[in-house]
UniProtKB/TrEMBL annotation, chain A:
Keywords (A to Z) from UniProt: ATP-binding, Nucleotide-binding, Transport
Protein name: ABC transporter ATP-binding protein
Phylogenetic placement of the source organism: Bacteria, Bacillati, Actinomycetota, Actinomycetes, Pseudonocardiales
Organism, as annotated: Umezawaea endophytica
Residue stretches spanning the membrane: none
Molecular function, one GO term: ATP hydrolysis activity
UniProt domain ABC transporter: residue ranges: 10-248
UniProtKB/TrEMBL annotation, chain B:
InterPro entries in alphabetical order: ABC3_permease_C, MacB_PCD, Macrolide_Exporter_MacB
Family affiliation: Belongs to the ABC-4 integral membrane protein family.
Tree of life domain: Bacteria
GO CC terms, sorted: plasma membrane
Membrane topology type: Multi-pass membrane protein
Keywords, comma-separated and alphabetical: Cell membrane, Membrane, Transmembrane, Transmembrane helix
Designated name of the protein: ABC transporter permease
Sequence ranges assigned to domain ABC3 transporter permease C-terminal in this UniProt record: 275-391, 484-590
Organism of this sequence: Umezawaea endophytica
GO terms for MF: transmembrane transporter activity
TM spans (from-to): 21-42, 270-293, 314-341, 361-383, 435-459, 479-504, 525-557, 569-593
From TrEMBL, chain C:
The Transcription regulator PadR N-terminal domain, residue ranges: 6-81
Protein's name in the database: PadR family transcriptional regulator
Domain of life: Bacteria
Organism: Umezawaea endophytica
Length: 248, 608, 175
């Protein structure tokens, strides 16, 4: 690997994903280059169907690219076997989904500890860690609740706790606020902001400007291509008054 | 008209969209209807032939015979006794030996007239009736000896040509026989090491000659006996007639003959009926898995159709059309397959029962099978239709296809196990009812196999003990073989159906678990083990089940349970291990497919 | 209306005053009805004085001499390019931004989608700051309420930008 001080945690080069053949060929991801550094929050925005979810699946090894390469912490993952990918997902990458994807028959804490159990943690360690995470995410009193008894925002918090339970290198979030009302969205925003402060590397795919605005960098995606990179830090230079016309 | 078209189109589209489910449902109903058809056809085959033969031959109510010519007057007297409405005979009968194409058998030779008798005129099924120099053989006997019309035979040293083959209701068909000769007969297998008195007939067949020829044969072959066939005013009251007129006369009622004629058929029928019951249970197990799964699915669909403006009537009509289509096809196919397989079973027992033809479908069988198939369709439609009509559109839409159940202690226990077993237990915990069905299905199958093993050993011992002849053993073995074949086939279908239903119902949680880091191998293993564990439980439970079933069969058939040799320990061990292995093999393919489905498609297509 | 709008409308080709008006009307639809013809001529005169536009005499003779055609001077062209790249907020003039896209597209001055992206980038930065400020406030403070208002307005603007993006994407792929 290169000798740079800060190598990217996640690196994609000329990444492509195609579906179908001939006339029906769809280039969902069409040559994407992306570097994500440790501790960074990166948002990928774009209209629905632009290929951003597919890109996220490729980055986490949930789907296989048609071409190009993905490196996680310097290691090629696009050519790993399904089994090796699964093992990688246990510890290195985790997902947060739009529709939460919690197991309906498991309580909050059982949902959270599941990834740790899959990774081979002892039941006791897994349970303790899950309880801690739920505590930290403000769900201490609800660890025995079934998902159906939780609000949308709380469910997404449980899903985030699950994603964090194996201390992954990267958390990949797919429209994490897509199914939430504005209060719950704010809740999740705050959560992601805390994760960011804590130094968690985050990739968020969204079409919600609010959640994209929490990122350090934002990419626009259109027709399978990243077209625009924005560094979002330093917008008003601290002069909030300008936002309401108090300063010019 | 437009409405009907709409309903049919919606139904067809739905079926096409869920091809796998529709196909599995079809197979399950098909298995049930085939089994039912087989059972019904055979039931009729077992009870009907004697009745039809009796009607066709104007069968006697009482057959009387005397062993000495001096008692002939008694028979003539009996013909005029009160209560007798018609009679035929007395006919002369002698004992003899028949040789045909190298095979030899004892026979009872009855002398008859060329003219039609008022009572017991044997029904010629092939060839023609007796005339000079020609002999007619009883149908089952001709079958057993493999003799056909036109073949030369030797009887009492004289040559005859076989004129025909006939059935009669005056004597049970070969190898059973009522003895009407002076020398006496013995039926069944001869215990080894025992010598029969020289002149005793062993398993005699029945043949007919003209009276003149019998009398002439009697000059060289030995004493004649005489037989008279009687028709009574009250065929139901033969016992009283026999009691009033016995003495030197030996009388047999038609009820006795019926009992003997259908003795073996009854045994096979009981076997078949018990088999049909077991198969029915298996069919119900797979049906409830499939229909139950689809009903939950349909409740959601009802909501959807209502949401776009379908009236509850339209919704119900679509569902009904769908199931009717599947059920009707399955019923038709089941009837055809059942009717085609039934002769395989009765081929050898047809002659045995004394019937000329093979069993065929009757309208009542067709009606019943179709009704059962349609019944399934209606029940499968009615529940979701009513539920859908009652529930609000919104809640029907919001319902998950089949909300998983929570079995807390299983989830807790599973955390201590290795990943594949953890996943297995959680799959199990999600659908406890399905697990029970899996256990029942395998349990029923293993019970059946247990009984088959026991019966097989039992039959294997028979030729030495005398309850069944070798030919009968072959027939019963044949019945058991078919039984076993259908049972195993249905059990296999069940195992696959249940696995596939599990795969389908858990596709979302499987995809999610894999997204969380379970490998495809772990997921496939879990899906397969989730079937194998219930299979093991079912196999173990099936052993006492089989024991109980065997006891029940013994009780019903009046068999001697003490003589039965139960399967040995190693047989049982092999049975359990074999069952588990077979289920593992059967479930591997669907489990592997299920464990390797692309994760992203499922996660994106379906909300949690 | 800002002078730059009129300037940009001339970027495609030199035009007569009436052509200019027709073009604006087409871009604004019913909103353009309120436009005062005199205002455009006043603006043109002012731009001419500033040296940003020049009157061009038609080449084909005198019969059309009563109608002057205006074209951009190099200074004018530069001014238009600056204006296109400019990001205007907190007083977003929807009509102005809209006409900027129309002018950019028709004169081929810039890709409208790039203009949209630039604008969005700026709005997102502001949204991020407003949001951070809002999250820092306790939920019931007065400031939080005001900041929520700003966040909502920014979101509305961003959503309109999304609509612009889609619309211009369609036009581009449609043509």
């Amino acid at each position: 690997m290169s000798e740079t001080a800060d190598p990217p945690v996640l690196h994609a080069r000329a990444l492509r994903k195609e579906y179908g053949k001939g006339e029906g060929l769809v280039r969902a991801v069409d040559g994407v280059d992306l570097d994500i550094r440790a501790g960074e929050t990166v948002a990928i925005m774009g209209p629905s169907g632009c290929g951003k979810s597919t890109l996220l699946h490729l980055l986490g090894g949930l789907d296989r690219p048609s071409g190009g390469e993905v490196l996680l912490n310097g290691r090629r993952i696009d050519n790993l076997s399904e089994k090796a990918l699964a093992r990688m997902r246990r510890t290195d990458v985790s997902y947060v989904f739009q529709s939460f994807h919690l197991m309906e028959e498991l309580t909050a804490v059982e949902n959270v500890e599941l990834s740790a159990l899959l990774a081979g943690c002892s039941p006791r360690t897994a349970r303790r860690r899950a309880e801690e995470l739920l505590d930290q995410l403000g769900l201490a009193g609800r660890s025995k609740f079934l998902p159906s008894a939780l609000s949308g925002g709380q469910r997404q918090r449980v899903a985030v706790a699950r994603a964090l339970s194996n201390e992954p290198l990267v958390v990949l979030a797919d429209e994490p606020t897509g199914n939430l009302d504005s209060a719950a969205t704010l809740d999740v925003l705050q959560l992601f902001d805390e994760l960011h402060e804590y130094g968690q590397t985050l990739v968020i795919v969204t079409h919600d400007a609010r959640i994209a605005a929490t990122a350090d960098r934002m990419f626009s995606m259109r027709d399978g291509v990243l077209i625009d990179e924005t560094r979002l830090t330093g917008g008003t230079n601290g002069k909030l008054g300008a936002l309401v016309g108090l300063e010019d | 008209m437009g409405r009907i078209l709409l309903v049919v189109r919606l139904a067809l589209r739905d079926l096409r969209q869920r091809r796998t489910e529709a196909a599995l449902l079809m197979i399950a109903i098909l298995a049930a209807t085939t089994t039912l058809t087989l059972g019904l056809v055979l039931r009729e085959a077992a009870s009907d032939p004697y009745e039809s033969t009796r009607a066709a031959t104007n069968g006697p109510d009482v057959v009387a015979h005397v062993a000495r010519p001096t008692d002939l007057a008694l028979l003539e007297e009996l013909a005029t006794a009160s209560g007798v409405t018609a009679h035929s005979g007395p006919y002369p009968v002698i004992a003899g030996r028949l040789q045909a194409a190298g095979r030899t058998s004892d026979v009872q030779v009855e002398g008859r007239d060329a003219t039609i008798a008022a009572v017991d005129q044997p029904e010629v099924t092939q060839g023609s009736w007796v005339s000079g120099g020609q002999v007619v053989l009883e149908a089952a006997f001709a079958d057993a000896l493999d003799v056909n019309v036109g073949d030369p035979v030797t009887l009492g040293g004289k040559s005859f040509t076989v004129a025909g083959v006939a059935v009669t209701a005056a004597m049970p068909p070969h190898p059973a026989a009522s003895c009407i000769v002076t020398t006496g007969c013995v039926n069944g297998a001869i215990p080894q090491g025992r010598n029969l008195p020289a002149r005793l007939l062993h398993n005699p067949g029945l043949v007919w000659l003209t009276q003149a020829e019998v009398r002439s044969l009697a000059l060289t072959q030995g004493p004649m006996s005489y037989v008279t066939n009687l028709k009574l005013a009250d065929p139901g009251d033969t016992q009283a007639f026999v009691a009033a007129n016995s003495g030197a006369l030996i009388m047999q009622t038609w009820q006795d003959i019926l009992a003997e004629a259908t003795d073996l058929a009854k045994d096979s029928q009981i076997l078949l009926l018990i088999g049909a019951w077991l198969l029915g249970l298996l069919a119900i197990a797979s049906l409830s898995v499939l229909v139950g799964g689809r009903m939950a699915d349909q409740t959601r669909r009802v909501g959807l159709l209502k949401a776009v403006g379908g009236t509850p009537g339209l919704v119900a009509a679509v569902l009904l059309a769908e199931y009717l289509l599947v059920a009707l096809i399955a019923a038709a196919a089941g009837l055809v397959i059942g009717a085609l397989t039934a002769p395989l079973l009765t081929e050898s027992s047809a002659g045995l029962v004394g019937s000329a033809g093979t069993p065929s479908l009757t309208w009542s069988t067709i009606g019943l099978v179709t009704a059962v198939a349609l019944g399934v369709a209606v029940v499968a439609t009615a529940v979701p239709a009513v539920r859908g009509a009652r529930s609000s559109t919104v809640s029907a839409l919001a319902n998950a296809a089949r909300p998983p159940r929570r079995t807390g202690w299983l989830i807790a226990v599973s955390t201590r196990l290795p990943v594949p077993l953890l996943l297995t237990l959680r799959l199990t915990a999600r659908q406890p009812r399905r697990v029970v069905l899996g256990v029942v299905s395998i349990g029923v199958t293993v019970s059946g196999i247990y009984v088959l093993l026991a019966l097989n050993t039992f039959l294997g011992d028979q030729p030495g003990t005398g309850a069944y002849s070798e030919a009968q053993v072959i027939v019963l073995r044949h019945v058991l073989g078919v039984w076993m074949g259908v049972l195993l086939a249905l059990a296999a279908v069940n195992a696959i159906v249940i696995t596939w239903a599990t795969v389908l119902d858990n596709r979302h949680s499987s995809a999610l678990t894999r997204a969380l880091g379970a490998t495809p191998g772990e997921m496939s293993t879990a899906l397969a083990v989730a079937q194998v564990l219930p299979a093991f439980a079912g196999a173990v439970l099936g052993l006492p089940g089989g024991f109980a079933l065997f006891a029940a069969i013994n009780a019903i058939t009046g068999g001697d349970g003490d003589r039965a040799v139960l399967p040995s320990l190693w047989q049982l061990l092999t049975l359990v291990v074999g069952t588990v292995f077979a289920v593992a093999v059967l479930t591997t393919v669907p489990a592997c497919i299920g464990g390797r489905r692309p994760v992203t498609e499922t996660l994106q297509a379906e909300p949690a | 209306m800002r002078q730059e709008v009129v300037l940009a409308m001339l970027a495609k080709e030199p035009s007569h005053g009436y052509q200019l008006r027709a073009r604006l009307r087409e871009a604004l639809g019913p909103l353009g009805d309120a436009m005062n013809a005199g205002h455009i001529y006043v603006t043109l005169t002012r731009l001419e004085k500033a040296g940003l536009v020049a009157v061009e005499v038609p080449a084909d003779g005198a019969d059309r001499s009563d109608r002057k055609a205006y074209g951009l001077t190099p200074d004018g062209q530069q001014r238009v390019a600056e204006w296109i790249a400019e990001v205007s907020w907190p007083k977003p003039d929807l009509a102005e931004f809209h006409l900027k896209l129309v002018a950019a597209a028709s004169a081929g001055l810039a890709d409208p989608l790039t203009v949209v992206d630039t604008q969005r980038r700026e709005l997102l930065r502001r949204l991020r700051d407003a949001q951070r400020a809002a999250m820092a406030e306790s939920a019931r403070s007065n400031a939080a309420l005001l900041l929520e208002g700003i966040v909502l307005r920014l979101q509305a603007d961003l959503r309109w930008l999304e609509a612009c993006e889609q619309n211009w994407t369609h036009r581009r792929s449609g043509s």
